[in-house]
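Forwarding the complex inputs:
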Amino acid sequence: MNRTRIIHAVLFVAVTQLVAASVVLASDPLPSWSDGAAKQSINAFVRLTTTRGGKSYIPPNERIAVFDNDGTLWSEQPMYFQLAFALDRVKALAPKHPEWKTQQPFKAVLEGDLKTVLAGGEHAILELVMATHAGNTTEEFSQIVTNWLATAKHPKTGRLYTDMVYQPMLELLAYLRANGFKTYIVSGGGIEFMRPWTEAIYGIPPEQVIGSSIKTRFEVRDGKPVLVRLPEINFIDDKAGKPVGINQHIGRRPIAAFGNSDGDLQMLQWTCAGKGPALCLYVHHTDGQREWAYDRKSSIGRLDKGLDEAKAKGWSVVDMKRDWKRIYPAEHK
Amino acid sequence: MNRTRIIHAVLFVAVTQLVAASVVLASDPLPSWSDGAAKQSINAFVRLTTTRGGKSYIPPNERIAVFDNDGTLWSEQPMYFQLAFALDRVKALAPKHPEWKTQQPFKAVLEGDLKTVLAGGEHAILELVMATHAGNTTEEFSQIVTNWLATAKHPKTGRLYTDMVYQPMLELLAYLRANGFKTYIVSGGGIEFMRPWTEAIYGIPPEQVIGSSIKTRFEVRDGKPVLVRLPEINFIDDKAGKPVGINQHIGRRPIAAFGNSDGDLQMLQWTCAGKGPALCLYVHHTDGQREWAYDRKSSIGRLDKGLDEAKAKGWSVVDMKRDWKRIYPAEHK
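Prediction (whole assembly, two chains):
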């Protein structure tokens, strides 16, 4: 290209980008959010922290936003989706485990008796997770998760699980990233259960996913290095574990945190106890028609202490029924 | 601004950027590297993986490069710099610990008897680290590290420790980042010992630092949430621990790995066993005059098995004496 053509080409690109930028500025980045206190607090926070020269300006490298996953970015009823995965894995692996026909909690799973499974409490769940999540390599497990998500359907909605992510939160993630925020997942769910799909679905790469984990061991098998997943807990990323996990992985205090349950309370406390401006927000499940309505008494995603603390500290609370025009991406307004 | 002024302004910015880009393209991004096999392999790898349309093209989100720290990004002789920090901390804390006057390995430290300290082996080192790295909050510890690095001088060079980073590696980090790579530290050193300064010195933010760690506990003290550092090992990020740490933090296999010792061997094996193109490089300490010369027999940074495997697998090996025109940033060529 000669010099004039280069200048023309650059001018074209520059003007195109300018036009694109104006369109972004002019349109609402959160179209699925009703105008209300929650949306206003988000907009005000982004403006406050990204306006150069303002006294609350935060440089981009410190704009860390953390999101719980279950119940905050996607649904979690009638059971955590990862538990549905574990139950399906028990069925898939059963032919190799004849002993499961008589051994709880596997027997109950194979008989479709969810009540007995859940009656076994945390111990039963842990046993199911270990039996279905360990014993393979990290690459094998990632493939198993990917295959399951491509076909498994939610028992109530009949949708793929990854179609049950919240449209308003997808918009919020994109809005924050467009404003220089680095978005993280900080979930009680399994880190390796989330990583195979969070980049495609949420735009969150694996290195920005923090979760619970089992231990792994490096081995060289037939000259090929692998990481083997062991039936041993490494880290539980829930409650007081969330600030610990954040510190381990990020090493810097977030300035925005989004959760939906008491399991997220310490993460919000940690985030909103920093020196500068911070945004703490709870998603409150209030829409029994379009999603589920639950809070203080629910065994899954209980929001009790958190609701009180949000009120006491002036944190934002999303009323899903009132604040969200749309729940899932495929849904019409 | 009216439309014409906007176009002029945009044109100015665009042309300026174009000129800047040409300058970058025209000049050598690795000026402290002698022309040789190591530099050529780096350049070839970057070209190969970033050329759009090429069959070895790697999208930016998968361009993960991992760097050991001690002996790879900064010096590690005559002892790991973090050990020098621990020894200084013992002296600083001694007034509060009268019992250390008679108790090993503290007694030896206070008497300046390094030989006895090191004769205590790993157990003695661990005891020193626990006594000096735990018992405070994450914020307090970060401040202690920052203060130490601002004043402590290396016993041989008289320089600040952060002035003993390798200029050629700073150039390599910047070169990779300019080509869309995400650069990580994966070190046997303490994660919280590195994070306070890696962003300023290496351009590597805390969330891209992986290292060994002790456990922390979330507590609310006087209404203020803190993370307390406990005298209990959480994770040792060395040898077979490095691929485990990489998987925990990044969740994706790197495509480039840089180390200098047998402690980095599994990290290089893991990186170079991926399906696509990958670069594995060892820094070989061969310059006894400008730095230190050591390899197969050294107790610090031993490079023995790694040297053999590099030869067998055709990995790149930097001969510091021959390949680096300059060692430290402040040094003249």
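Chain B is about 45% helix and 15% strand.
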